[in-house]
Amino acid sequence: MSRFKNITLQIHNLSGSVLSLMFVIWFLSGFVLIFAGFPHASKEERFLHLSFLTKSDFDSIQAPSKSFSGEIELEKMNGNPVYRVYSGRKSQKVYNAVSLNESEKATEKEAVNLAEDFTGAKLQSVEKIEELDQWIPWDYYNPLLPIYKCYLNDKDHTRIYISEKTGSIIQETTRKSRWAARLGAIPHWIYFKSLRLQKGLWLKVVAWISFLGILVSITGLVAGFIRLKKRKKNSQWTEFSPYKKFWYKWHHITGFLFGFFVFTFILSGFFSVVDIPKSLVPVHAKVSAAKVWNQKPDAKQHAVISMSDLWNAVKGEKPIRKVVWKTVMNQACFWVYRDQFELPDVYVATADGVFAKPDYSEKEISSWCKSAFTGTNYDLKELNEFDAYYQKSGMWKRPLPVWQLSLHDADHTCMYIHPKTGEVIKSYNSNDRGRRWLYKSLHTLDFPFLKQHEWLRKFLLLFLSLGGTVVSVSGFVLGIKWIRRKAKKSLPVRLKPVKIKSND
After folding, report:
1. pTM
2. Total domain count, the chain
3. Which UniProt keyword terms apply here (predicted)?
4. Is residue 347, in this structure, part of any structural domain at all?
5. Among 145, 280, 294, 306, which residue has the least CB neighbours within 10 Å?
6. Distance separating alpha carbons of residues 394 and 392, to the nearest angstrom
7. Which residue, among 426, 422, 427, has the nearest Cα to 331 in the 3D structure?
């Protein structure tokens, strides 16, 4: 047993000394992340800055080419109607909607005009960057290069990034959001550009640091119990620790009190970049149920509709900012966006014309389920309140009610279907559920009750992060002391000169 104790303590001392500074950084940056994340250009603001499509636009444009593959969106760019055809997460091609020729690249003048219109501020300077920088450190942005980086002359020191290829805004930062990221998201997520752009390497670095952090926290918990001292009657509550020196004593006490939460924070951080092994929680389906349900748009299905007929069908009191071509339940649809960027008016295209689509009924959902998942039993109900898996989101508007479709398949798949658009908003299988609890719940206290009481969730996060900070700071100090002791022992012993008395 004594050998086990010694090994545990040595592992904790070594690993804790190496990683204690990283722990301090994680917890201190976590305070900032509770209130501010990585900067991004608001999707809603970008949508609301789109120019309106008019009848003259629809009279002049052609229907999308049948060769267009991917999601097709019609909107205006620099005053002209264009089709944006998406082939990946960010990759897209832009076509002139009148000629169907690929649009020319955005000029610097056009980028400046867009940036000034978007912010309401005058340009200070502009540069054309050929590679991604600290504020767009994701490799999936590479297809959008080169990018105009516009510096605006406003009190917020705003910077707008506009792709030359697509002529669209892809990032917005302010001095406040940049400093918040420098103190929060960047050190916490290790979002340093040179590392983050190498996604495979970044994942490995975060995973290994987190794994070693788990080792530190587990051995720390064990060491805390090993060093536990039985209290005497009428003694102070801190007397369970055998240590007398300040840093040793408070590292032991706070580690004992908050060590478990430190462990859960690090463990959940590990699962933010690592999936649950399929050997533990198998995934049987080769293609996810959500991908089966949400079909890729087929421009050929929409070819029977002329653009003038489409305009006559969708024109209304509110002007149109964007139209999206969709295929839902094997039916050609048009999603028409007016003043709400996440809630379109839905129209279906038939041989007889284009008609407004009422919300998808239980019968329609059931019918498509039977067609898409032949031979699979299911349960379908209308969900009128958020549950443990379908919750409010800071970035996306989650509608209520929604259709909750639970498949009786090997993966226990559950999908939440938008009643207006008929597409899957969120989907979970057994593996996804495990990761949801191991990551989001443990890392951000994303539990249903706490999500309903946001102030309480943030208070608990702040309190537990404060405890974790004390554990980490005291561990960092002790780590420095431990390294110094080891360094002194490893140095060669200096022999003191011996004076020899002479008889002369």
Report:
1. 0.87
2. 1
3. Membrane, Transmembrane, Transmembrane helix
4. no
5. 280
6. 7
7. 422
Residue 246: domain span: 1-37+183-283+437-495
Question: For residues 11 and 6, what is the distance between their CA atoms, to the nearest angstrom?
Answer: 9
Give CA–CA dist 437/430, Å, rounded. 11
From residue 473, how far is each of 27, 65, 99, 129, 491 by CA, in Å?
10, 62, 64, 40, 27
370-380: burial string, b at 16+ Cβ within 10 Å, e else: eeebeeeebee
Residue 372 located in a structural domain: no
Angle at CA of residue 328, ends 308 and 391, nearest 5°: 120
Please indicate, yes or no, if residue 458 is contained in any of the structural domains.
Answer: yes
Question: Under 8 Å CB-to-CB from 431, ≥6 apart: which residues?
Answer: 275, 276, 278, 281, 282, 283, 411
DSSP line for 205-236: HHHHHHHHHHHHHHHHHHHHHHT--PPPTT--
Show the tokens assigned to 213. Answer: 């952090």
> Residue 119: inside a domain, yes or no?
no
Q: What is the rounded CA–CA span in Å between residue 253 and residue 20?
A: 17
Residue 41 tokens, joined:
């250009």
Work out the burial of residue 57: count CB atoms within 10 Å of its CB; fewer than 13 is exposed, 13-18 middle, 19 or more buried. buried
Q: Which two tokens stand for residue 303?
A: 């070819």
User: Closest Cα partner for 349 from 11, 64, 45?
Assistant: 64
Q: What is the pLDDT along the chain (504 residues), one digit of tens a residue?
A: 577 778 887 888 888 888 889 999 999 999 999 999 999 999 999 999 999 999 999 999 999 988 888 889 999 998 899 999 998 777 899 999 999 999 999 999 999 999 999 999 999 999 999 999 999 999 889 999 999 999 999 999 999 999 999 999 999 999 999 999 999 999 999 999 889 988 889 999 999 999 999 999 998 888 888 777 654 555 555 566 777 888 888 888 888 889 899 999 999 999 998 888 888 899 989 899 999 999 988 888 888 888 988 999 998 889 999 999 999 999 999 999 999 988 999 999 888 889 999 999 999 999 999 999 998 999 999 999 999 999 887 667 888 999 999 999 999 999 999 999 999 999 999 999 999 999 999 999 999 888 888 999 999 999 999 999 999 999 899 888 888 887 877 766 555 565 665 554
Distance in Å from the first CA to the final CA of the chain: 63
CA-wise closest residue to 312 among 334, 293, 281, 296:
334
